[in-house]
Amino acid sequence: MIHSPPQSQLSSDLSDRLRRLAEAEDARLIADRRSFHANPELGWQEIETTAAIVKNLSRSGYEIVAGPAFLGDVERRGLSKDPIPGEGDTGCIAIYDTGRPGPTVCMRVDIDALPIKEATGNHAPAAQGFASRKPGVMHSCGHDGHAAIGLAVARIVKPLLKGGRGKLKLLFQPAEEGGRGGRAVADAGWMDDVDLFFAIHLGLGVPSDSAAFAVHGILANARYDVRLKGRAAHAGKSPEAGRNALLAACQISLGLHTLAQSSRPGMRLNVGLLNAGTAVNIVPEEATLTFEMRAQETADLQALEARCKDFVEATARAHGVEVSLVPGGGADGYANPEEIAEWAQGVNTATGAFGTVLPDMFFGASEDAATLASRVVARGGRGGIFVLGADLADDHHTPNFDFDEKALQKSALLCAGLIASAMDVDHVED
Amino acid sequence: MIHSPPQSQLSSDLSDRLRRLAEAEDARLIADRRSFHANPELGWQEIETTAAIVKNLSRSGYEIVAGPAFLGDVERRGLSKDPIPGEGDTGCIAIYDTGRPGPTVCMRVDIDALPIKEATGNHAPAAQGFASRKPGVMHSCGHDGHAAIGLAVARIVKPLLKGGRGKLKLLFQPAEEGGRGGRAVADAGWMDDVDLFFAIHLGLGVPSDSAAFAVHGILANARYDVRLKGRAAHAGKSPEAGRNALLAACQISLGLHTLAQSSRPGMRLNVGLLNAGTAVNIVPEEATLTFEMRAQETADLQALEARCKDFVEATARAHGVEVSLVPGGGADGYANPEEIAEWAQGVNTATGAFGTVLPDMFFGASEDAATLASRVVARGGRGGIFVLGADLADDHHTPNFDFDEKALQKSALLCAGLIASAMDVDHVED
Amino acid sequence: MIHSPPQSQLSSDLSDRLRRLAEAEDARLIADRRSFHANPELGWQEIETTAAIVKNLSRSGYEIVAGPAFLGDVERRGLSKDPIPGEGDTGCIAIYDTGRPGPTVCMRVDIDALPIKEATGNHAPAAQGFASRKPGVMHSCGHDGHAAIGLAVARIVKPLLKGGRGKLKLLFQPAEEGGRGGRAVADAGWMDDVDLFFAIHLGLGVPSDSAAFAVHGILANARYDVRLKGRAAHAGKSPEAGRNALLAACQISLGLHTLAQSSRPGMRLNVGLLNAGTAVNIVPEEATLTFEMRAQETADLQALEARCKDFVEATARAHGVEVSLVPGGGADGYANPEEIAEWAQGVNTATGAFGTVLPDMFFGASEDAATLASRVVARGGRGGIFVLGADLADDHHTPNFDFDEKALQKSALLCAGLIASAMDVDHVED
Amino acid sequence: MIHSPPQSQLSSDLSDRLRRLAEAEDARLIADRRSFHANPELGWQEIETTAAIVKNLSRSGYEIVAGPAFLGDVERRGLSKDPIPGEGDTGCIAIYDTGRPGPTVCMRVDIDALPIKEATGNHAPAAQGFASRKPGVMHSCGHDGHAAIGLAVARIVKPLLKGGRGKLKLLFQPAEEGGRGGRAVADAGWMDDVDLFFAIHLGLGVPSDSAAFAVHGILANARYDVRLKGRAAHAGKSPEAGRNALLAACQISLGLHTLAQSSRPGMRLNVGLLNAGTAVNIVPEEATLTFEMRAQETADLQALEARCKDFVEATARAHGVEVSLVPGGGADGYANPEEIAEWAQGVNTATGAFGTVLPDMFFGASEDAATLASRVVARGGRGGIFVLGADLADDHHTPNFDFDEKALQKSALLCAGLIASAMDVDHVED
After folding, report:
1. Residue A2 pLDDT more than 70?
2. For a disulfide at A416, which of A90, A156, B384, C17, Cβ 3.0-4.6 Å?
3. Are residues D326 and B319 in contact, defined by beta-carbon separation less than 8 angstroms?
4. Domain B235-330 CATH assignment equals 3.30.70.360
5. Which InterPro entries does the record match to this protein (chains A, B, C, D) (predicted)?
């Protein structure tokens, strides 16, 4: 792997052509995004979503790998207890090899939704008729937009690629939320030949027509499923005979939250799920809870992780309750290298995609793409995670989340420009 | 309602006949009990159980009221959020009117199971092939035996009743656990003409071949469903924007349990169910929990209830979380009147059902029959709740619960004797 | 030790004489009680109280053992961290030996006060000028009355004893609260020759002019001092470096209280003291807490004790905090033997002390006298703890506690009668 | 107030002279520091410390204001419940007026210690014989060094000042810990004529021979004393009659700590003190706790403050306990203006005090000097808070804290240079 950093020069002819192509995608981008929005699926369950993507790309000239072939038999973390048919075999990758020497470039978008009940009333998706049709599941992070952008970029760059160098991989990643899919994709080997990786995220506080390329502070994270098993007892006849898994779970949850406070950057802890008990008159025998931790630096995450594991185990023991901690997903921390930020900024200037570029941005959250980027970097490649501005109706992961759809065309233009520049489309005669 | 207390005299001829009839029922009692055990259904969902009872009694000469006609449109507390078809229209009553003046006598058995996963291995029902076929649902309180006894009693007394006085009601009550069905039955008016009510419970620490008639300390109880609604937020990006319903639920659960300690008799509190959160990386917006309180005396229960409601509401407010408390089921407290204990003891002596009678017994738990008995007493009738001995493999409401099936025949004999004596079967020529 | 149970016969002459003597004590009883009330001292610190008792008895003809000679070098539990001069060498015993063969009889009264701030306003001791002069310390359990009764009984029986048999020990016990002094007294050997022991307690819900002799349900108890040592840290600069002993103490306290609920009789748990931290901007390094447990039966107490110790240790470990548990005081459980209740009831009838005798009484709390009585019983002697009625202004251990002083004379009369009958005063010529 | 920013030019002659003067102070600096270290006093109780400072400066030519005259009758927050004689009238100010027009310059040092038990063994102050002689009180933040530096600076600059312009105020501030003294000093008017204010702090992670002038992220903070009043009850006889202030305090403490987590910069919360209960067998009636909050931005602090107040009040109500929240001390947030950082850096270069200057430093804690600096800035003046490097044996606020005493001379040199430059000493002939 001896490729030099990507160059951001694009001829003005190519830039013009990209702009025209992106403009032509506008209506379809919005339609696709709304279609994804109306049909959200949780991580590892993006069955219809994947089918729609595969169908969309079917006659596009890309090689498509999907279904069980995509991730093979690598471990998938965080599947449901009773997986639905097809669960875990979601997501896909579209590949185009120019046949000429050059870098392998991978653009990643993610496609999963969240277990949130979408707002109604004035909430735009509801008012305009594309709200979630699946109760309790919602695209409230913008992955519907990411998937639509991925498809548009596939269409925009396809005609240009025959004049480029190297190989393109368009990755439609499943199960980003909770940091589960990235590791499976990397373990399946899809990053092993990638020289240049990039991923995008809409919104995150960056306003419409702005973008952040010098992104740092993408947090490392880790999550655990905790299972507690006490002893049931008749709550009226013999409460003292029980070992109460519900109360153990409550003390664990409260105590873990008191451990989160830190002077170290990006430290976070959340107990996101807790379920305990079976009937009102039985001392609860079983409880489960799931928590995640985040930190900017891996060493800090590991220190917190060690404390939390000790805390959970000892508190369970205090209540006379058996405990198991099962690691769930997790993502590495990441910060874009300077050269990658400069490259993206150059392409943005050349294409005119976003009017304003933030000098730098502290991400302050986790992003499963960091696991993919880290894997590429570990092998000597380069990686970037870019935040593309979009005004929001409400915070990510809330029922009223929505984003300014004008961001879609701009994003598709930028991404197409990044690919064109990295694959040297400009310098090769048609 | 001017009937005098029931008399326990039974002629020795009648006692002999009852004993022969009960002995003849033994194999069927055990078979019925095992069939119910293998097919447990939760409260308000005893659909197959009710169908089996109705079918069993169908050509018996009793008038059977079941289905929507049984409870009409009275309120059913504690139905599922998404009730299954038929839910709430379970249980039934079998009626026989002698046509002669005399008391209306009601014997109640209950028929529902519990959300417990039955043990395997050496656990007798598993070893002998009649363990629950429904994962996570189990007859771990003995209601399978109660239902079988109810059917046997129906068969035993039927031929005798034409020589008796008054009216017999054999009540197969749904949803006893959680104290939900009793109130619905009473509200539907089935107790309005009852002069003498009795219910039975197997086990409860009373050994095989013993029985307790002078039962007191049946606890009053009340339960609440608590719903908490906070505000979701991205746990990594903006935890401070959330209002954490999970942590509120944890502090409520722990705090409620600290309120239970009391010098007053029979005070108990249990948070039996807690569910919170939707995803590991979202500050939990919603949580639900269910708790129950018990006390020997109604005034104590009300005092605890008032404290608990205040506690829940204020703690939710502390976390910035909205709260609603929905009352679930509940049962009255009860103690058998002396005359009723004496009557039952006399019948026991006459029939020779149980070899030993406990001088008295502190029940120390709730029993939905108390609501029915209280309703009868409030109208001037009489009521008793009897505990019939059966050695247990493990405590009620635990996965290894099982009881000595020898108790079935003894119980059926006693109950048939109680009915025969109350309805004066002995004194009327055939 | 072959003495038969005490006989309750008293000649009517002797009864009359006792009544006259008790009546003559009335004013002094009230004055003494008020003096003790105004000068309360905590357990092991009853220095002025002991001095007043010793002075009072100094020319009475009793042998007085007080100061370091009283308890010698036996272990005193629950001394202050920084004991004041004289602490632990409090209490005393007054002895009279008739020189004639007969039983050794011990009457115990207790003399310590509580760390409660006495009420003001209409509260009788305040309104009548004998409220506590020591801020934050108060006789709110009635031991002021007990001490006064002890002195009156000493005076009443003294002239009679020369005509009796055996030996009398009047024990003024220190540090009853928290169950600390009883064990020290027993360990010092003062019970080793006692054939008949009795102690009294005023109030406890028994109304004026009533008394309870058939007392059962005196609870066993145990207490622990918990010391937690974590790690200090600057709360602003590096909270993650701390190991927070305060939060550990909070989770321990809440969790312990959730363990108290039980179907077993008399189970109680209380965390009575908690102190943690040194400054608002330091992660608290140290915390201490003290808790007690009670149960009617020793086996239950031991089971709860084992759970609580495990709970404390594991929860401390969860917080990364070192912990030590130091056993504090404790008392045995007790129930008066029937023959002792009958004896006291007979003496009460003979003397006419209390108009009404309760058929039985569940004590429902601990009483350090149980440790003394148990020690006597273990050696083959007999013991009783009697509750002497007194209407109360408010509960024991509250700032408004006060009792009906009419109980003093009645109590002194009864106690003198008990001694007279046990020591056979009646049968010996003057 | 029209003074231009301070200029950092110092003639090389003056710089040389300052260096020589500072070198000459070295032994005395160390001796003074050790003397203060051995005799630590808590905030508002720096009685001996103030006396030593006043004595030290008594014949120095400065006007000294100390005792009640220093702070007059302005409110002192955070005095002890039972203040010792002289408490609150500590600290002093030394003033020298050149008589020539020019700025009023104020240098602040702080003088209070912390409630920490100093380490023994190898800990240098212990090994070298200057450990705290006051059990449980320790200079574990470096204020002993600050006070010594203040005295040295007074001596160094005194001979130079007659050639300067304006007025010098050397402030020896009491009660810095907890943010109490700064506000009192400001309220007493001592900042009202100050044009240029600066304060110093040793250590804080800056290594020996380094200094940070471009300091930002000095956190705003606020603290509250919480008093809870429930209802006492006999823990054995009637626990249900109590309203448990201890358990309320525990739930408040745990809950507050769960509110601290935030994406906003510098957010912190600490419950530093908790005291509850009076005796092991009484349901605790009273509890007190003290907590502080910090944030980089005042709006964030106010938002957290509002949540915390609501939380405390509602949780107390949940337990049926009365509550009062009394605001304690607090400090403003602060960041040094660029011009002030440049001035100090220039003086450092000229004097050669510290070899390395950090490009910038995030302070990440509170500093009471921020309240003084903010007051000066609000009136149009300028202020700076500088961190002067010193290697540490352990973290601030821990028992093993100690600092490299080589920092003392360097600090005195820098501070003297700052004063000399600000008061234009260089431009006036001796």
Report:
1. no
2. A156
3. no
4. yes
5. Amidohydrolase, Bact_exopeptidase_dim_dom, Peptidase_M20, Peptidase_M20/M20A_hydrolases, Peptidase_M20_dimer
In which residue are the tokens 């690919």 written? Answer: A419
Q: Which CATH architecture describes the domain C220-330?
A: 2-Layer Sandwich (3.30)
Q: Which CATH architecture has domain D12-218+333-427?
A: 3-Layer(aba) Sandwich (3.40)
Kindly report the pTM of this predicted structure: 0.78
* CATH architecture of structural domain D221-330: 2-Layer Sandwich (3.30)
Residues A398 and B232 sit within 8 Å (Cβ to Cβ): yes
Burial of A428 (0-12, 13-18, 19+ CB in 10 A): middle
pLDDT tier, A77 (very low <50, low <70, confident <90, very high otherwise): confident
Give strand ranges (E) for C157-202. 167-173, 196-202
Which residue in this structure is represented by tokens 């022969």? Answer: B20
Contact B258 C258 (CB under 8 A): yes
> Is residue C341 within 8 Å of C359, Cβ to Cβ?
no
Nearest alpha carbon to residue B46 among B151, B177, B232 = B177
Are A397 and A141 in contact by the 8 Å Cβ rule? The answer is yes
| pLDDT at position B211 over 60 | yes
| Contact residues on chain C for A263, CB-CB shorter than 8 A | 236-240
Tens digit of each residue's pLDDT (9 = 90 or more) over C290-300: 999 999 888 89
Task: Name the residue of chain D whose CA is nearest to B301's CA.
Answer: D240
- Alpha carbons C292 and C299: distance in angstroms, whole number: 16
CB contact under 8 A, C246 and D271: yes
Phi, psi of D44 (to 5 degrees): 70, -5
Residue D268 near chain A (CB below 8 Å)? yes
**Residue B304 contacts residue B269 (beta carbons within 8 Å):** yes
Q: Which residue type occupies A161? A: L
D423: its two tokens: 């008061």
Give CA–CA dist B392/B398, Å, rounded. 11
The dihedral over CA atoms of D418, D422, D424, D430, expressed in degrees to the nearest 10, equals: -40
Is D141 marked as a binding-site residue?
yes
Strands (DSSP E) found in A298-372: 322-331, 356-358, 361-365
Same topology between domain B12-218+333-427 and domain B235-330? no
Q: Does C41 touch chain D (CB under 8 A)?
A: no
Distance of CA A345 to the CA centre of its chain: 22
| pLDDT band at C3; cut points 50, 70, 90 | low
Identity of the residue numbered C360: D
Provide the shortest C-alpha distance from residue C426 to chain A (in Å).
Answer: 53
CB B423 within 8 A of CB B168: yes
Q: Could you tell me the CA-to-CA distances from A62 to A53, A92, A151 in Å, in that order?
A: 12, 12, 12
What is the amino acid identity at position A156? Answer: I
Residue A328 has pLDDT above 90, yes or no: no
**In 3D, which of A218, A190, A179 has the Cα closest to residue A379?**
A190
ipTM of the complex in this document:
0.73
Please tell me the predicted confidence (pLDDT) of residue D430. Answer: 42
Half-sphere exposure in the Cβ direction for A173 (13 Å, CA): 33
> Mutating which of C80, C116, C234 best tests the D interface, going by the most D Cβ atoms within 10 A?
C234
Contact A258 D254 (CB under 8 A): yes
Query: Is B292 near chain A, with CB under 8 Å?
Result: yes
Strands A220-229, A286-295: parallel, antiparallel or unpaired by DSSP? antiparallel
- Domain boundaries in chain A? 12-218+333-427, 221-330
CA atoms within 13 A on the CB side of C82: 0
* pLDDT attached to residue D426: 63
Q: Write down how long chain D is.
A: 430
Asked if D114 contacts C281 with a C-beta cutoff of 8 angstroms, the reply is no
Q: What's the rounded mean pLDDT across residues A87-105?
A: 96
Please give the structure tokens belonging to residue B147: 């239902």
For chain D, list residues with pLDDT below 50.
1-2, 427-430
- Rounded Cα–Cα distance for residues D55 and D50 (Å): 8
Contact assignment for A204 to B237 by CB distance below 8 Å: yes
